[in-house]
Amino acid sequence: EATETAPEEPAPPRPPRLTEAQVALLADPDVLALANQLEHIGIASTAPATSRFAETPRGYKLLLETSPQWFFGKRNEWRQHEKRKRSFGVPNWGQNRRYGFRPEELLWTGALDLHGAKPSDLDNDIHPLLSHDNFDDCPQEIYNQLMPACRLASMFLTKDVCMQYWVTLARGTRENDIGKTINSGVRHERIREDVSLTAANIAEIRQYLMDLQQAENPIRFTFQPAIPLQNAYAASSAICDYNFKHRLHPERKFRHALIFLHQDYYTTALRLSQLQYPDEAQKLRFNFLLANTLVHELAHAVQMGHVNDETGGREVFLYDANRNELGEAWESKTWGGRVLAVNSRCDGSHGVAVCDWPFKNVFLDSEHEHNIWYSVPMGFIENIQLKKTWAKNYALDETPFRIPRTGAQSVEVVAFTTMKLSEEERVLREEMQEAANEANEQPQQKRGMLGTGEVRRTTPERDDIFGPDNPPTGPRNPGPRSRGLRRMRGVGRNHRGRGRGDGRGGPRR
Description:
By secondary structure, this protein is an alpha+beta fold. It is built from 15 helices and 10 strands.
């Protein structure tokens, strides 16, 4: 009898043979833990731990410093604009104003020198957002020069009298700006009024800024020789999340950001670290400018860290400003205007200037007067870096740090030069002439010498005997029309010895 047998089950597929290196790799517990976490990570890139080293230019040269050529070019541009306005019948409101500062006025008004200037004596704790760990590729000797500015910037992030901007940015009523939305085609929001300051609001926002860096470490600083924005001291950029684009990652409460500081700050800090007797007034101006830049960029980074799906990360408009520039809005709220370094020298050697903000657009509205820049007195810069100034009890609605408008004045141009226009034009002509000579310079040809010691004359080619110009015309070299007439007249041998003696005219061959 035939016995029934159960069908054989198919053998399971044999696993691929792994090499010893692959087996060791899979056995590594760190690699296995990383593989298990990869699918839960949404951020594709984070701030680098270190950046490219900022090389110091030769002679500690500042790359952003304006040149005399730029100064005279910008001044001539504004003068031509004034002439066009006058041709349209606009009154000349600024006929007694000058484009650019005068060096002697900066000295007279106390913008450059201060006898017995006291160094900064602030000893408060540095805010966690500005700790040394957050500055990429910043040696200790460099950060030591940045510490006074970091201490001053920390005051504007923690003191009650300076919290109006931060509370308004966090708790202000945001409404749709219909005009900006229609013009740009995307949604824009605006905060029109300040939020009333209370002890609860101040404590909440201050604690949030303190815990932010400790929780996620989202903001870092790095030095770069070139900023993405042209002629900018610094720039804040959000780190791209390729999985969520402009939406916030569900496992995070804050989008990370990287703040680029221009290399000039690094160069200045390095130079100050090597000086035994630095100029205290200049050092105070450097601390003031750097602190202003740090808080300016933190205003951008904190806003872009809280992503709104409707606005796509665009900054909110504050009050009646025409620009959604939160860094400049913070400066205007604190200083009463926009602060810049004269001649774009972030070391403050040429002074500091302030102007009302928002700026007046004199190109779109011919009725507007010009933007007037005022030099910041050294007395104000010194007092703001002393402990006794911050020890006072200010009212919450008080604005004690508004810069007085008592210094030298300049129209539109935040620069000056000690070079006269005639000297600058002479130097420019010489440079252009040297460039033209180099472009037209031809290699010298070797000259042959005769036995008598004379230079052998080189005969040009027959086709190029007259060069690029037409041959000369005259009795001995008549033009084409006269040569044809002579042939028709049949000039003989006796005509100036040029005939051939056969009764036919024409030039001798």
